[in-house]
Amino acid sequence: QVQLVESGGGLVQAGGSLRLSCAASGRTFSSLTMGWFRQAPGKQRDFVAVISGSGALTEYAESVKGRFTISRDNAKNMGYLQMDSLKPEDTAVYYCAYRLRTYYSGSRSSSSDYAYWGQGTQVTVSS
C-alpha cells in the first residue's frame, strides 16, 4: 500500500525558513515525478514545485521561484521542499504527491495528474 507522510510544517515568522519532508513507502518511487502543492483555507489546491524521478529537472510556481527548492533522495524514498524567505501568503497546508506519467507528459502543475497524495502538513507564516 502506497503511503506518503509529510512533516516539517509549523509556525514561522515572515522571512524565516522551513524544510518540509515527504516519506514515501509501498512501491518504488525513484522513477516517478514528485510534486508539492499547497492549499490555503477556502482556496483551491495550487502547484508549488515539481521534480523529475532522477532529480535533474525541476519547475516552480512563479510565486515561490527563487525562494523554494525542491529535492529528493531516491535511496531513502524521501522528498523535500526547502522554503526560505517565507511570506504570510505562503500560509497553507502543503502536500507532496507523485504522478505516474513521465516528466514531460501530461500537466506537471495539475493536481489531477497526480496519483498518490500525502495527508498534508500545515505551514503558518506570521507577519
Structural notes for this entry:
The chain is mainly beta. Helix content is 0%, strand content 49%. Strands 2, 4, 5, 6, 9, 10 and 11 form a seven-stranded mixed beta sheet that branches. It has a four-stranded antiparallel beta sheet with strand order 1-3-8-7, with no helix packed on it. The termini are far apart.
The count of strands amounts to: 11
Beta-strand residue percentage: over 45%
What percentage of residues falls in helices of 4 or more residues?
under 10%
**What is the number of helical segments per DSSP (H or I, 4+ residues)?**
0
- Spatial gap, N to C terminus: 40 Å
Radius of gyration: 13 Å
Average of pLDDT: 96
Query: What is the helix/strand order?
Result: EEEEEEEEEEE
Structural class: mainly beta
Shape category? globular
Runs in which pLDDT lies below 50 for 5 or more consecutive residues are none
Main sheet? 7 strands, mixed
